[in-house]
Amino acid sequence: MSQPVTLTVNGKTSDVSCGATTTLLTVLRDTLALTGSKRGCNQGVCGACTVLVDGAPMRSCLTLAANIEGQNITTIEGLPEGGDLKPIQQAIIDSDAVQCGFCTSGMILTAHEFLQRNSNPSIDEIRTALSGNICRCSGYRKIVDAVALAASRGGA
Amino acid sequence: MLTSMTKTDFQKPKTVEEAVTLLKEAGDDARPISGGATLVALMNARLVQPSRLVSLSAIDELTQCTYQSDGSVRIGAMRRHRQTAFESNLKAAHQVVSGAASQIANPPVRNMGTIGGSISFADPAADYPPSLVAANAEIEIAGPEGRRRIPAEEFFLGWYETALEPGEIVTAVILPPVSESSVGQYEKLCRIAGDFALASVAVTIDFNASNTVTSLRLAVGGCGGGPIRVEAAEQALIGTKLELDAVVDAAELVVAELDPIDDVRGSAEYRLKVVPRLLQRAFNNLVETREPAQ
Q1: What are phi and psi for residue A32, nearest 5 degrees?
Q2: Cβ separation A19–B3 shorter than 8 A
Q3: Which residues of A touch B47 (CB under 8 A)?
Q4: Distance CA B125, CA B237 (A)
Q5: d(CA B47, CA B31)
Q6: N vs C: which end of chain B shows fewer Cβ within 10 Å?
């Protein structure tokens, strides 16, 4: 069974038809074809599915689409403004912080929100902020460097 | 993905009373949903297939945290862990609760999970249960018969089991008034950042003007089916100044009451060795909080 749900994703509002138990992640990937959000553990542990809901990082795999009508969802596809990468995105590129890329979108969205709250973080604070995002290539060093680089450039 | 065979119906009531009625109508397979951090994970693992989901997110009353005129604090069930971690209404001994909230899982999960959802699931290794027992909190529950309040100690019954009857939901956690001289501390040991506790310790203490302990509550998490309060150790510490000898003796009384198991996080034996050290750490940090500079 399905019911219409009105979702606002990356500034665009659409009506999607989904079941009561359908997660936001499934709607993003399978209905809206926004595959930048990844399905890793489907248990909220790995962080690969992280999106921003009203600006706060949340797990799209644990979020029911029907439960977030009226809230603003930002995925990695919607992060650049007018085609310009955000400072954290550019810093990830400049730091060679992408290995397989599976964790990258979740890392970027989490770091972006963190840098908006803390523009001059210590390395420990960066590591704590990213503690809910797992990189199975274990390429943490360069990801942390990238967040520090974005901060040093004064951006989020 | 993972299309369920059974139909699930989704409701988003505006009041607690409507929510309770909707749950009652649908029977045992209905589930309230707050942040989703636990329930949706269980649904994704196909451990739960609710016939009806009753979302609590449109009920204003549940999203408030209020400081009451008598000095108590009422934390609505829908308050997210992140809100409770930074809650300005929580001072003195109440910080045992904000301290626990700040150590739950990781930042994105703390944006989602709620205090009502967490305690209703009652994972024995979760952070709120021992902290609420140490804080002498009461749990407010709404059901078809109306509302009732019970002490946190009577709410947690054992492994994932609470005093909630079918059709009941947690509506708030109420923390009693505390004196300004009181302090609260939550200490947790986990294998990696974001994990549930291998073991945890929650304490609230009040002192007189000469730094002698006048009241103390102590509870341990992750070492049995629910939070374990050890009154013998509390009594042993009241009247002391938390001298090392007194703490070591009290830790022995605590360990005697624990009933840990071997699991993926650690052995029972290891937990029994860790708890006295967590207690010592809690007391050390508390003393530092009280006397920041000598």
Answers
A1: -95, 0
A2: yes
A3: none
A4: 25
A5: 13
A6: C
The beta strands (E) that lie in chain B are given as 9-11, 30-33, 52-55, 65-67, 73-76, 138-143, 146-151, 156-158, 161-162, 169-175, 183-189, 199-207, 213-221, 228-229
**Cα-trace Rg, chain A:** 15
Contact of A117 with B107, CB cutoff 8 Å: no
Cβ contact B112–A62 (<8 Å): yes
- Supply the pLDDT for residue B7: 80
Contact assessment for residue A80 and residue A86, using Cβ atoms and an 8 Å cutoff: yes
Last residue of a domain, one of B143, B175, B207: B175
Say what the pTM is. 0.94
Element (H, E) at B251: helix B244-257
Domain range for B236: 183-289
Residue that finishes a domain, picked among A51, A78, A105: A78
| CATH for A116 | 1.10.150.120
Q: Which residue has the tokens 């949903």?
A: B33
B169 and B187 belong to one structural domain: no
Has the ipTM of the complex gone over 0.90?
A: yes
For chain B, the residue count is 294
Show residues of chain B in contact with A45, CB under 8 Å: 194
Whether the predicted pLDDT of B16 surpasses 70: yes
**Position B54 in a domain:** no
**pLDDT one-digit tens code per residue, B90-143:** 999 999 999 999 999 999 999 999 999 999 999 999 999 999 999 999 999 999
CA distance B219 to chain A (A): 27
Chain B residues with CB inside 8 Å of A131's CB? 106-107, 193-194
Question: What span, in angstroms and rounded, lies between the C-alpha atoms of B25 and B27?
Answer: 6
What's the number of domains chain A is made of? 2
Number of folded domains that form chain B: 2
List the one residue out of B9, B52, B60, B3 whose CA is nearest residue B32: B52
B127 and B197 in a common domain: no
Per-residue pLDDT of A94-122, as tens digits, reads 999 999 999 999 999 999 999 999 999 99
CB proximity under 8 Å: B 215-274 to A = none
Structure tokens given for B285? 């940090």
